[in-house]
Amino acid sequence: MIDVIHIVLFTFLAVIAIAIIRLRDLFAAVMLMGIFSLLSASLFTVMDAVDVAFTEAAVGAGVSTILMLATLSLTHSSESTRYARPRPMALVAVVLTGAALVYATFDMPRYGDPAAPIHHHVADHYIEDTDDEIGVPNMVTAILASYRGYDTWGETAVIFTACVGVMMLLGGARTFYRWRHREEDEPEEAGEAS
Question: Per the database record, which ranges form the MrpA C-terminal/MbhE domain (predicted)?
């Protein structure tokens, strides 16, 4: 049953990705990217990676969509086709990068393999000693809040800093836009007064 859910979610993700590539309306593309992020979060949940699903839902579907919509409010809502021409070197770079990534996956252990090294590095210690050392009943919360507390705090600080930076850039662009149009309107008003 899980395999069917994986196949359905991956199919939806592929269809939405192709639709995003083909769209020229940027608002529709942003909305589809938000849906893509929510489907990705659903896929992570099915794969038992709930913490990653929360991050994808919050950052991918939430913050990123809001920032892209804010950016669209400062620009045009459709993609310019003036510079649209085929770029074969870009296609070659994408195909070569994709081939390298696929080749790199051949050396990885099978998905869910209990004998994989990742499951025996520190996972055994977490499973055996979390209750005694931390006292939190939820193991994922104990790992993220205690064992990996500095890492989680760092990730949160990076995301917060990026959001503040983008909001400052968007606010600065909006302020400049208003200031420029105010300057253009002032000479006309001064000329009308005299």
Answer: 94-171
